[in-house]
Design a protein that fits this description.
Distance between the termini: 63 Å
Strand order of the largest sheet: 2-3-1-4
Shape: globular
Mean pLDDT: 80
Order of helices and strands: EHHEEHEH
Structural class: alpha+beta
Low-confidence stretches: 128-146
Number of helices: 4
Number of strands: 4
Strand content: 25-35%
Length: 146
């Protein structure tokens, strides 16, 4: 499929926190899998927010929002949305055309996604380092007072 056949879309995916748990990378990868399965060229994909919902959805009061910019053939949007409806991880999806976005906004979103990914990588490395330090600490050492 040529680039000329692809349209820019802005997608917001509300992830079910009960299904994805605290695995942010897993939630992002799940959205990536869905988009790529339908031939999307992903421009950016990042966590937007984790917040309380205005009203409960399937008994859930909180949700994780994943924001994406992607290019896809228009005929692939409906099957992709259907995949999301059938998924236990995706509670809701909203896709709109990205015609309103200029090159500056697209580049800002791409940089924001890269920054978010870099922060997630640092957090993951920090957690691994903390776990390793805790595992190597003497077990009979007194707890720090303070």
């Amino acid at each position: 499929m040529a680039d000329g056949d692809l349209t820019l879309y802005d997608g917001l995916f509300l992830m079910n926190p009960e299904a994805v748990g605290t695995d942010l990378a897993g939630a992002i990868n799940r959205v990536r899998e869905i988009l790529e399965r339908h031939g999307a060229e992903i421009v950016s994909l990042r966590k937007w927010d984790d917040r309380r919902l205005a009203y409960p959805i399937a008994g859930q009061k909180r949700g994780l929002y994943i924001l994406s910019l992607f290019r896809m053939a228009g005929g692939s949007i409906a099957p992709m949305e259907r995949d999301c409806q059938l998924s236990e991880e995706v509670a809701r999806v909203m896709v709109i055309r990205g015609d309103h976005l200029g090159e500056v906004e697209i580049e800002q979103e791409r940089k924001a996604a890269e920054t978010t990914q870099a922060e997630a990588n640092l957090r993951g490395a920090g957690e691994e380092g903390e776990a390793a330090s805790a595992a190597n600490a003497p077990r009979d050492a007194p707890a720090e007072q303070g």
